[in-house]
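Subject: for your reference before the review

Hello V.,

The reviewers asked for a structural picture of the protein, and I figured it would be easier to keep everything in one thread rather than splitting it across files. Below is the amino acid sequence we used in the manuscript, unchanged from the supplementary table.
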Amino acid sequence: MKRLISISLITALAAWLASFFFDPQSGRRRRSTTVDRAGALARRGRRDAERAGRAVASEAYGLKQKATHLREQEKPQPDDVTLAHKVETEIFRDPDVPKGQINVNAEDGVVYLRGEVERTEMIDDLGQAARNVQGVLGVENLLHVPSSPAPQKLD
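And here is what came back from the structure prediction:
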C-alpha cells in the first residue's frame, strides 16, 4: 500500500513537472530560467570550492614558512657602520627615546651608546635592546642622566 502511494506520488510529481516545463505559453521561459539558475548554482559552488582550496593552501604555506623560519638565519658579521645603523633602527623605534641626544657607534662588533636620557631605567632598556640586535658582540653603555657625570670609555 505504501509503495503504491509513493509510486502514484512520484507519477503525479512527474506529470506536474512535465506540464510546468512543457506548457505551450510559458514552458520555454521556465526551462531557460531553470537551466540558467542551475548553471549559476554550479558555477558558484565551483568558485566557492576553489576559493576554499586556495585559502587552505595559503594557510598551509604560511604555517610551513613559520616552521622553516623559526629563527633568523645566521648572517656574516656586519661591518661596524651597518651594525651601528641596525642598533639605531632598533633603539629609536620607541618615540620616547631622545634621538638627538644619543650617539651610537660600533668598533669591532662592540656597540657604544653615548649621551643623555631622562630616566635611569631607559639606560638599561636601551642597552638591552642593543644587545638583542644580531651581530652585536658587546655593548658599552655610556648613557647617563642629566644630573650625573658622563661615564668614560675603558680602554
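For the response letter, the relevant points are probably these. Residues 2-68 form one domain. The first helix runs from residue 2 to 21.

Happy to draft the paragraph if you're swamped.

O.
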